[in-house]
Amino acid sequence: MMPEKTDYLLFSKEFTKQESLPTESIQRAVEVMQSGRLHRYNSATDQDSEASLLEQEFADYLGKKYCLACASCGSALYLALKSAGVKPGDKILANAYTLAPVPGAIVNAGGIPVLTEITNDYTIDVDDFVTKARETDSKYLLLSHMRGHMADMDRICEICETLGICLIEDCAHTLGARWAGRLSGTFGDIACYSTQTYKHINSGEGGLLVTDDDIIIAKAILYSGSYMLYKKHLSRSALEVFDSLHKSIPNFSMRMDNLRAAILRPQLKNLETQCQRWNERYAVLEALLKEVAHIRVPARPEKESPVGSSIQFTLEGVSRTQVQSFIAECGHRGVEIKWFGSDEPTGFTSSFEHWEFVSDIPKLPITRNILDFMCDFRVPLTFSLDDCRTVAKVIKQVATNIF
Prior knowledge:
This protein is of the alpha/beta class. The protein folds into 2 domains: 23-269, 3-Layer(aba) Sandwich (Aspartate Aminotransferase, domain 2), CATH 3.40.640.10; 271-402, Alpha-Beta Complex (Aspartate Aminotransferase, domain 1), CATH 3.90.1150.10. The protein has helices at 23-35, 50-62, 73-84, 101-108, 126-136, 153-163, 214-225, 239-243, 258-269, 271-289, 320-332, 365-372, 385-402; strands spanning 66-70, 91-95, 112-116, 140-144, 166-170, 178-179, 182-183, 190-194, 207-211, 295-296, 304-305, 310-315, 338-339, 374-378. A hairpin with a 2-residue loop joins strand 6 (178-179) and strand 7.
């Protein structure tokens, strides 16, 4: 008897489709538009602006003293570097597995990116970080929690303190995630978050900078373009801190507007519920993908409590050509997998060798090999748990056929 032919599985939902904004966000946005007061400093005398309220609420959520709402996460990273004191020619350490806005922010601030290797679990190689910190005498680490993977923050913090390194956390993918019960972004001197469409709260574009440092927040507010209206900020240091700064710091016009802030505030209130929903979907995908031959999903450290808004896995025991065939066939079946091993940048995805704006692109053979065999895709909340099961089944079927 001939064996029964396996069904040719397809998936039809979009990986880029987001949930609708909460009703409260839509209502509040309409109210702001009806008021005409979209600019963050255009508020009535007796009222606090939506941007100021968002900053105060976001700082409270994280347990930080200060927050600044910015035009994007990239602009927040740039303001963080400038406010931390980066000067032209300063060397800034950063893990090589990240997205282009991170080295872009470093170059924009006049710094020189010093890219480090990563580990098989997609986090910064701490030993390589220490070696390069000592070789370059760098005093800054811009650490990306790329795709939601957090390194050993206990060790990172200990090293930064020992070597006198200013730690800036890029938390674009880890809003709501924790290490040893402590929220990401609360370990460093400064942290930056994204509110772009594909992040954990969505205003289309936007960024948030947090710090406990009185001088850093004053500089960031001034750099962001507060004119002489920094008094209107609820989340700021004392006015005396601004007195010696406000005439010497240029205005870079990187503010968030009231419309986006109004959209975000209701989402922040619902963030923990959304994180739980992402993790439910991640758990389904993780369990099923771990059963597939040639696929390795890294185990999460015991201290890490991630937010599974995307998932990554490594293809093992296969060739680079087979990886390309696997990704192409998954795409034909509706499962859109991103690959950092491509020879050319595609969409949002590029790797360190594509960043020709970096003055000295290093040879990073370990990172190059990891990225050549790593697969990555978003986990939208528009997917049901059954949708996640179908996605995993498509991947398994394609892997079985190709490998």
